[in-house]
Amino acid sequence: QVQLVESGGGLVQAGGSLRLSCAASGSIFSVDTMGWYRQAPLETRELVATITSGGSTNAVDSVKGRFTISRDNGKNTVYLQMNSLKPEDTAVYYCNADVTSSRGTVYNYWGRGTQVTVSS
Fold first, then answer.
1. Alpha carbons 10 and 104: distance in angstroms, whole number
2. Which residues contact 16 (CB under 8 A, 6 or more apart)?
3. What backbone phi and psi angles, to 5 degrees, belong to 105?
4. CA distance 81 to 63
5. Contact 2/25 with Cβ under 8 angstroms?
6. Please, is 80 exposed, middle or buried when counting C-beta atoms within 10 Å of its C-beta (0-12, 13-18, 19+)?
7. Strand order of the sheet with strand 67-72?
8. According to the 3-state scheme, what is the secondary structure of the chain?
9. Rounded to whole angstroms, how far apart are CA atoms 46 and 41?
10. Which residues pair with 59 in a beta bridge?
11. CA distance 84 to 95
């Protein structure tokens, strides 16, 4: 089994910054694409940003220029640096990862989520 554990959420004023971390652990051969999604109350879960094992990134337009996704492959950890936060960024942020097992099978995993609240 594989676990994704997020940390770094919290309450911040508009214009502030937070850094989220997500570490994958367990029966891992390799961690492929990792990403962050978010879900605001009464909204559907949406993609925030993704990063491949080679470092290629993708982000939703609403966070470009403010959020930066990065990863440490040696630690199987992905980060989301969030700057210039806005109240509309308030949501539960979920980590997601494609993990290849020792048998070569790729599974997709979700973390439990971490709350980010931005006050105006």
1. 37
2. 85, 118
3. -90, 140
4. 11
5. yes
6. buried
7. 2-7, 18-26, 77-82, 67-72
8. CEEEEEECCEEEECCCCEEEEEEEEECCCEEEEEEEEEECCCCCCEEEEEECCCCCEEECHHHCCCEEEEEEHHHCEEEEEECCCCHHHCEEEEEEEEEECCCCCEEEEECCCEEEEEEC
9. 12
10. 49
11. 21
Handedness of CA 27, 31, 32, 36 (dihedral sign): positive
Cα 64 to Cα 34, 53, 61: the distances in Å are 17, 20, 5
Q: pLDDT tens for residues 67-114?
A: 999 999 999 999 999 999 999 999 999 999 999 988 889 999 999 999
What is the reported pLDDT for 1?
87
Tokens describing residue 49? 């940003």
